[in-house]
Amino acid sequence: MVDTGAWYTVVDLEIAKRIGVDYTGSILSLTSFLGHKVLCCEALIRSITIEEKTVSPELIAVCSVSGSVRDLLKKYNVVEEVIIDTHTLEKLGYAVDVATHRLIESSGILMI
């Protein structure tokens, strides 16, 4: 799942335990797309790979993905344990095609 409005890639706590992350000590208060406040721990992940492209290291937000968010993501047949943010996507050289909802190669966006 890609959230083009997200500032952090969100990783579910159970996934973070399995893959291993390094916590920074910062606590984040994020707002879900359902309007719920979610407390997360900021962490560094060694790398993120999407379709054979890798970026490393990367700051992420680790939190417990709530049941209501999981249910909504399952409804759209997407993995509910990881939500990729815009910055990570751009570092990997991808964007979301709004017409097809698929990843496309992108050279990035420069906002001046």
Q: Overview of this structure, please?
A:
The chain has 112 residues and is of the alpha+beta class. The chain is globular, with a radius of gyration of 14 Å. It has a six-stranded mixed sheet with strand order 1-8-2-7-4-3. The chain starts with a strand and ends in a 7-residue tail after the last strand. It has one domain (2-105): Acid Proteases (Cathepsin D, subunit A, domain 1, Beta Barrel). The model has no long low-confidence stretch (mean pLDDT 86). Helices cover 20% and strands 44% of the residues. It has three helices and ten strands; from the N terminus they run E-E-H-E-E-E-E-E-H-E-H-E-E. Strand 5 (48-50) and strand 6 form a beta hairpin. It has helices spanning 13-19, 67-75, 86-91, and strands at 2-3, 9-12, 22-31, 37-45, 48-50, 53-55, 58-63, 82-85, 94-97, 102-105. The longest helix has 9 residues, at 67-75.
Keyword list:
single chain; 112 residues; alpha+beta; Cathepsin D, subunit A, domain 1; six-stranded mixed β-sheet; two-stranded antiparallel ribbon; 3 helices; globular
> Under the CATH scheme, which architecture would be assigned?
Beta Barrel
> Biggest β-sheet, characterized?
6 strands, mixed
| Rg (C-alpha, Å) | 14 Å
Number of strands: 10
Fourth-level CATH superfamily: Acid Proteases
Number of helices: 3
Note the gap between the termini.
Answer: 28 Å
Q: What fold name stands as the CATH topology? A: Cathepsin D, subunit A, domain 1
Question: What is the H/E order?
Answer: EEHEEEEEHEHEE
Strand order of the largest sheet: 1-8-2-7-4-3
CATH class: Mainly Beta
Mean pLDDT: 86
Question: What number of domains?
Answer: 1
Spans of at least 5 consecutive residues with low confidence = none
